[in-house]
Amino acid sequence: MNIKLKTINLLLGCSISLSVCAYPADWNPLAVGGTDTLGFFVNEIKANPEPFQTPKPARRLIAIDPGHPSSFNSGSAVINGTTEVHINWVVALKLKELLLSGGADVVMTKSSEMQLVDNKERARIANRVGADLIVHLHADAGPHSGFAVYYPDRRGVHTYKDDPENGFTGPSKTVITGSSALGKAVFNGMSGVLAGKLRGALRTDFQSLVGSRQGALTTSIFSEIPTVTIEMAVLTNYSDALFIKSEQGQDLMAKAIAAGILDR
Questions:
Q1: Are the C-beta atoms of 186 and 194 separated by less than 8 Å?
Q2: Which end of the chain has fewer CB within 10 Å, C or N?
């Protein structure tokens, strides 16, 4: 029998009777630490190898700042049957739950409605924990109506009474750029959800009373992360107040703000 015939018989033997074939089937167990029938060293064989795990994306950390009381305004004046500090707190709690259920982590700048936190400290709380962004919740007063989203568009200089940190300058160019993008996203999200309920406006810090004096709001000056301030409604406007006092209005406001954050 020549070499070619031997080769054919060997192949036929493998196809007819695997148990006598010189080549081992890949499902036959091999001894760990020994050699297989072809002379290859067997180091380790796992019967049930671990499935490939795709790393989970990191959850974003969102800071929520329910405005007031602060060192210059308690926010507790009763206006059209409610107070700003109460509205800020209630909507903040609802927003927190929506963000958590939407896949984000949340840090609050205060733990109770009437806890006094200085405006500088509100920004620094978010800075210290490494939050990705911060939203400051407020309610406005004046002859107008609707909501407004403010973001810093320039560096400001902190100037408040005899504050030892007067002259502090911020935010950085990176924060300004990030805040601009955040402001637009939040405004767009809120506009979609609140259509037919409240009109909205997108403004810079410089268009606010404090911002026009300092160049930016105090919380923006001390912020190291993208930051926006939201005036959710105008409490001195009866229609706005009626909306934001209702649980339905508060739920819708929280949903509107969450939409702008989570869709970003």
A1: no
A2: N
Interatomic CA distance for residues 84 and 74, integer angstroms: 9
Residue type for position 45: I
Dist CA 22 CA 17 (whole Å) = 10
pTM equals 0.79
**Residue 263 confidence (pLDDT):** 82
Quote the mean pLDDT of the chain: 86
Neighbouring C-alpha atoms within 13 Å toward the C-beta of 261 = 33
Q: How many CA atoms lie within 13 A of 48 on its CB side?
A: 0
The proportion of the chain whose per-residue pLDDT surpasses 70, expressed as a percent, equals: 78
Q: In sequence order, which residues have a C-beta less than 8 Å from that of residue 221 and are 6 or more positions away?
A: 123, 152, 155, 156, 157, 158, 168, 169, 170, 171, 214, 215
Distance CA 66, CA 114 (A): 10
Angle at 223 between CA 221 and CA 227, to 5 degrees: 100
CA distances from 113 to 75, 91, 246 (A): 11, 11, 18
Beta bridge partners of 78: 83
13 has pLDDT over 50 = no
In angstroms, the CA 99 to CA 215 distance is 31
Residue 191 token pair:
């506009």
